[in-house]
Amino acid sequence: MLTRRAFLGSIAVTAQSAAKRPNILFVISDDWGHGHAGAYGAKWVNTPHFDRVAREGVLFHNCFTSNPKCSPCRATILCGRNSWQMKEAISHFSIFPNDFPVFPDLLENAGYFVGLTGKGWGPGDFKSTGWKRNPAGPSFDKFRSKPPTNGISQLDYARNFEDFLSQRPKEKPFYFWMGLHEPHRKYENGSGVRAGKDLASVDVPSYFPDNAVVRGDMLDYAVEVEWSDTHLGRALALLEKAGELNSTLVVVTSDHGMPFPRVKGQIYEHGFHIPLAVRLGGLPAGRSVDDFINTRDFAPTLLEFAGVPKAPTMTGKSFADVLRSPRSGQVDSSRNVMIVAKERHDLGRPNDAGYPVRAIRTKEWLYVRNYTPDAWPAGNPETGYRNVDDSPTKTLLIATFDEHYQLAFGKRPAEELYHVSEDPECMKNLAGDAANALVIRNLRSQMEKTLKEEGDPRLNGDAGFFDTIKYTGGRKHGYDEWLKNQKNNP
Predict the structure, then answer these.
(1) Is 445 exposed, middle or buried (0-12, 13-18, 19+ CB in 10 A)?
(2) Residue 475: its pLDDT value, please?
(3) Which among 139, 121, 129, 169 has a CA at the least distance from the CA of 5?
(4) Helix (H) or strand (E) holding 53
(5) Mind listing the pLDDT tens digit for each residue in 430-478?
(6) First vs last C-alpha separation in the chain
(7) Helix or strand or coil: residue 24?
(8) Less Cβ crowding at N or C end of the chain, within 10 Å?
(9) Which of 235, 233, 256 is nearest to 29 (CA)?
(10) Helix (H), strand (E), coil (C) string for 95-145
């Protein structure tokens, strides 16, 4: 296999492509779920600048991550590979392997001025494997601001983008990763209502009880989504003022669904379905596209627009052809399947065990294979269900211990099947219906065939590899720490 270093040294950009290379602004929110934008019809969260990108560009309805947790998803974006192809980086709080070229390095080698503000790849450890900087690029984090709530990062992302632009050599196109920390928790409780938002406006998913606690928690989330959108708007204004908006490929997305029970880190529709809008002057605008886009497709797409060959290690497929097409709806008929995976996310089980899952999503179905159905999917109860962020909604579900608790935290069967085109909230498991046996068999066969072809260790007889991946984060919530506390406080 061509090494990362060797490939970086082999890049060449043709004179023709160099003359036409666009700038690239990649804007990624942390924990922002699909549908939570005005362009998708949401009335309880205001995103005028995302809506503008969608209106003046292309709005995608079926963009997915192959692993709904921060660092695994971001690894797939940077390396253009699926989660199960990322070695240790399939797990949250892992090391970042130095085996695969990342697209920011490829762009820099091809003459782009590159930069990052906020959250790039992480959380995890990239230094021990030889990376001299975050794989998403060199940091521009000098400027701070005073946010409207105490849960929001003080980083002034847009001002840092302006600082980056001021240092850019005039002859170079730029690539910039704007990594917004929002709407990651913690939130300032009640901030949504205090901002004048209406509890009655929220669209509460069926897997939550419909009450003021949940509605208020979702409005607090909306405040942080809107804060992210203001920085996108400021970035667009900077480009517009400089006369470079139409020569900049603007990509706006997220890493996975909202930080709520049964969503973030979980293999259900709302966990891995993410927003996406793309704008570039000259592309057919005002389109709404149904093609399935995978986060591993971002790197090949950005590289194609930049005239840079994708690395041979990249298994994603450029969707530049979809962006250049004048059509709406389904543009590329082959883009109609998505496979999702997870191994270990956060601690909370004996021996730091994960909760391995593989799933396949088609236009009509979501088939889920839970490999350890006797384990707790969100982490063990005694350690606090650590694969779910703490929140008022989480506290409420645990306290009420009803069907909503079961949906979020309860053990799950080995197989699940959802008619996702009719049941996007994945409320009715149809796997036990004999009438669906053929559907399950066909989906399972298709999924396993693809995973084997793509080198998934779990399907190729080396599932034990995943147990060797070390957790690089704090151990406060580990199972061993819980046992120690029990012994010290009998």
Answers:
(1) exposed
(2) 92
(3) 129
(4) helix 48-56
(5) 999 999 999 999 999 999 999 999 999 999 999 999 999 999 999 998 9
(6) 55
(7) strand
(8) C
(9) 256
(10) ECCCCCCCHHHHHHHCCCEEEEEECCCCCEECHHHCCCCCCCCCECCCCEC
List CB contacts of 446: < 8 A, sequence separation 6 or more: 337, 360
For residue 358, give the 3-state DSSP assignment: strand
- State the DSSP H helix or E strand holding residue 417, giving kind and residue range, or none if neither: strand 415-418
CB-CB contact of 236 with 245 (8 Å): yes
CA angle 318, 321, 326 (to 5 degrees): 150
Structural domains in the chain, CATH included, are 4-335 (3.40.720.10), 339-488 (no CATH)
Nearest Cα residue to 220 out of 255, 162, 260:
260
Q: How many CB atoms lie within 10 A of CB 147?
A: 17
Q: What integer pLDDT is reported at residue 16 of this predicted model?
A: 42
Nearest to 44 by CA among 198, 255, 208: 198
- Bridge-based pairing of strands 357-362 and 248-254 is unpaired
pTM above 0.85, yes or no: yes
| Percentages of the chain per state (helix, strand, coil), in multiples of 5 | 35, 15, 50
Element (H, E) at 240: helix 212-241
pLDDT tier at 484 (50, 70, 90 boundaries)? confident
Structure confidence by residue, pLDDT tens digits, 179-214: 999 999 999 999 999 999 999 999 999 999 999 999
